[in-house]
Structures are given as C-alpha cells and as structure tokens.
Amino acid sequence: MAPRGGEIVVMPIRRIVLLIIAFGTAARLVLAGITGFGYDESYMVGNARLFSLSYVDHAPLHVWLAGAAEWFFGSEATIFVRMPFVLMFAGSVWLMYRLTARLFGERAGLWATIAFNLAPVFSFSHASWVLPDGPAIFFLLATANVLERILFDERPMRSPLAWWLAAGLLAGLALLSKYNAAFLIAAVFVYLVTVPSARRYLTTPGPWLAAVIAAIVFLPVVVWNLEHTLVGLYFQTRRIGAPGLQLGLFAEDIGGELLYLTPWLGVPFFISLVKALRAGRRDPRGWLLALAAVGPIAVFTFFALWQRGLPHWSMPGWLFAIPLFGRDAAQLAVRRPRFARGYMAATAAVFAVILALFVFQFELGGLIPAPVVARNAALDPTVDLINWTQLRSALEERGLLPPGTVVASPLWMYAGKTSYALGPGVPVVCVCDDFQHFAYRYDQHQWAGRDMIIVVPERDPWLWPVAAKFFDAVEPMPPVAITRNGQTVMTLDLALGKNLHFPPK
Prior knowledge:
Strand content: 5-15%
Strand order of the largest sheet: 4-3-5-7-6
Mean pLDDT: 91
Oligomer: single chain
Low-confidence stretches: 1-9
C-alpha cells in the first residue's frame, strides 16, 4: 500500500488472490517434491500404471491424472505425479474466490480465499496428494460457478441451455472424481423445488439435460462395475455396517472433522452454515450453498453414530460452508476490523508454525525421537510419507531382485507401498483378506505355485497368519531398516513364501 492524496491505496483484491495462488502453488510444489507418497497415494500410483475404466474403491479420475502425469513426464517421482493435483488446487482457489465474490462481493471472496488456504485438509492433503479429493473440489467449485451464473446473474443469458449443459459436464467430472459429488446434484434439485423464483427452470430442458450429461460422463464407472459384478458398489455398501448406537465413534468423527479444519476455522464455518440454514429460502444465495454443504456433513457425521467413518468424507460439504464464512467474515471486518484481521492473522501464524514443524519432523525427525517412532509409528504422522526406496536397494544388494521376481504383502496399504518402492517392473501380489484393486491390476493367479518374498512391517506381526494362508510355508529372512537422517524409523520384516496358492473365499 502507498499514500496518495491523503488516502491509503490498497492493492486490488484480485491481485492479492493471485499472489496467494502463486505463493501457495510454489510452496506446494516444493512440498510435493520433498515428501514421499502416503499409503493411499502409493496404492493409487501403482493402480495408475495400468489403465482401467474405474477402480474397486474409488471413482477413476484422480488415477487417470496420475497415470497421465507418469506417461507425460516418464517418471513416478512425487513432484511429477502430484503436479496435476497442485495445479488443480491453484484453479480451485481461483474458483473459490470467484464464486464467493460474485455471490457476496470482492471482500467476502478474499476472506473465503484466505480461509480455504488455511484449512489444513484443503490446503495440504487435498491440494497436492494423489487422492480423489483434489479433482473433486475443483469440479465441484467449477460446477457451482456455472450454477451461480445461471441462477443469480442479473444479466440476460444468450444461451441458457449451453450453461446448463456445461454444469452437467462439470458435475459429471465431479462424480467421476468422487461419488459424494452426488450431494451437489441433489442440493441443486432441492433448491429448484424449494425456491419459487427458480421453479421455472424445472419446466425447461436445461436441468434435465444437465443430469443426462452428468450420467453420460459417469458411464465409465457404470460400465466397469457391470463388467465386474458390481464389485465397486458392493465395496461402498460394506461401509454402511449394522445399525447400533456408537456415541464414541460419533464424537471421534466430529473431533476428526475439527482437526482437519482446525477448531478456529471449523467452528466459524459451522456458525455461518447454521445462519444460512436458519435464513433458508429468504436468502437464495446462502440457501443454495447451505444445501450443498449440509448434505455430506449431516449424512457422514450422523453415519458415525453406528459405523466408523472417515472425517474427510464430509469435507465436500465444508467446502461450500467457506463462501458463507467469507460473507460473514467480511461483514465482521466492517464492524470489528482489528478483531477480524487479528483472528485471521493468528490463524495464519498457527498454520505456518504447524507446517514448519511438520516439514522439520519429516526431513530430520528431530521432534519425536527415532526410537520412539520405531516402536510406535502412529506417534509420527510423517512416517507415512517416507517412501520405502531402501527396500529395493536392500533386495538388490542381496541379489533378490532377478528378472521375473514377484513380491507379496498381506495388506493392501503395504502392498501399495511395496509396489511403488520396487517400481513398475516388479509385480506385487496382495495376499490379503481384502484385495482392493490388486485383484484387477492383473490376474494374480498367474503366479500360483511361485515362491516369493513377503514384506510386513515389524509393527504388524498379526499380518503373518494372513500371509501364511497363501503359502505352504513361510521362512523368515533378514529384515530391512527404513531410515531417516541415519536413524531407523521402521523395520520391514521379510520372509520367503513357498508355493503361492489362493485359499477358497
């Protein structure tokens, strides 16, 4: 800012947003390069080596993106495979700003942009990791931006049908990213039914053709499931569980959501959402966002009353609470500017400190002693992001990776880590109770009768009986240490499995 004519001229809000995007993207590219793949990411990268119309446990778009990055760069290095996700989040930040600014004004857009970048679940994991959430966020926000143009723009539309078709295409891509994008489609329908001025759209072909376009885009998932006995649908229904009140799981899920958002953002997001729900149809703009937010939040949070869920399932709902927060924060900043700015500055400072500590622990392991981590890796979340590249080096040094080698692991997460560490030239068999997508990467039965090395982290000895079901005998071998900064953080136990076979289901 600079004085001019006795006034203070502030940098244009749009330029501030662009600076936030530029700085955030640069920082995320650095983090993408220095941190390894988590368990889910390693599994996804392995799946991406072989194209499939869909996958057992997820919609396919994020895997396709990872595969495209692997092909384009000719490398599975973390920075290259994660790059599409980092760039998509840069687009998501812009879309968040534009959506909020068009609905509630430029200042609200800035507040929403800042909050979006300070919520760890969005700014860190969903912004760069090889997961379905990043593409889902991008296409959900893109869909919402098109819907805003259709429903709230006062300028006459030259071709409203084209806008509806664009909304359908983007909604379909959101579904192709993550199944719970269906909540946004449902929210739009409820909005059109409940807001009198919007009901006229139901008498036009636009919304209905948009739904058809979304369904067509989603067809690869349908076709793959029909070809594979609806295994993906069965996988999702297994998560429902049997009814039974579990207040502990309910509290755990709420705590997880607050942890993912941080309490100092999660609570204000909740307050803004409740205000919008109370205003209801009297505030059509807030009502649309509230409907888009409340579906996944309510369903997946209350789902935890009887079955353990995952806190990130409800995050697409909290995504749409952020513009509501942006509106309320902008209004608060007019009434109490020092408090509003101080609160957000403190939030930014805490976020920066947490991120710095995370990077420090990942790189050097100086905060939690290595012996403690080696005994209980759950105490150090950064251990999950350490690639098992030392496994390949150790096997090569021992002469255990000749051409044609096949390796096994009895849990899909560890099979995924092993698969990424050994590279695309070494097939990994999941000798597991739950094969996930390993059963569809290739026909695992082709290696029946083979002897192969089994990899199991030392901390999970309960997995050896699982592996033993698939072999006639299991002979222990010397372990492999996974180190960081010269200190062991994890030990991988190895064994030779004799005569692979697949027990009856």
